[in-house]
Design goal:
There is one protein chain. This protein has seven helices and three strands, in the order E-H-H-E-E-H-H-H-H-H. The model has no long low-confidence stretch (mean pLDDT 82). It is globular and about 45 Å long.
Length: 143
């Protein structure tokens, strides 16, 4: 069986990834939730976290066939949510609640955004701030 290794060094202190412990949560997901989730996930051969970072060794997915259509996939996700409603929070208290990181992301964004205007890509930053980058990338109606 082919395997895929994902190695991550610890995230930069103060980053969203560090504040939310994103890589550690992924390790815990494969150790604790994947074995009992009730849906097919890639097999996990190693999930570890040390001071040097995280390592996940997962089943290679390149041989998988495309899955269900959107409606069937939504049905599987709905059943998964019904199965764990009211239980997941108690069983895995490390899971973030919906919206739990909103203030954190807003604060980090507010700290970072002003400094972006000083970087060489400040033209892009100003276009994003005014929405011109988004409107410029939209297809124009044909006449």
């Amino acid at each position: 069986m082919r395997r895929h290794a994902k190695r991550r060094v610890p995230p930069v202190p103060g980053s969203i990834a560090a504040a939310l412990d994103i890589f550690g949560a992924k390790v815990r997901l494969y150790r604790q939730i994947a074995p009992v989730a009730g849906v097919r996930v890639p097999a996990c051969y190693q999930a570890s976290q040390t001071s040097e970072g995280t390592v996940l060794v997962l089943e290679e997915l390149s041989g998988w066939q495309p899955g269900a259509g959107p409606a069937a996939a939504a049905g599987v996700l709905a059943a998964l949510h019904r199965r764990w409603k009211g239980q997941a929070d108690l069983r895995w208290p490390w899971l973030r609640r919906s919206g739990a990181a909103v203030n954190l992301v807003e604060d980090l964004f507010g700290q970072t955004w002003p400094g972006l205007g000083l970087c060489p890509h400040s033209q892009l930053v100003s276009r994003l701030a005014t929405g011109r980058a988004l409107s410029a990338s939209r297809p124009r109606p044909s006449t």
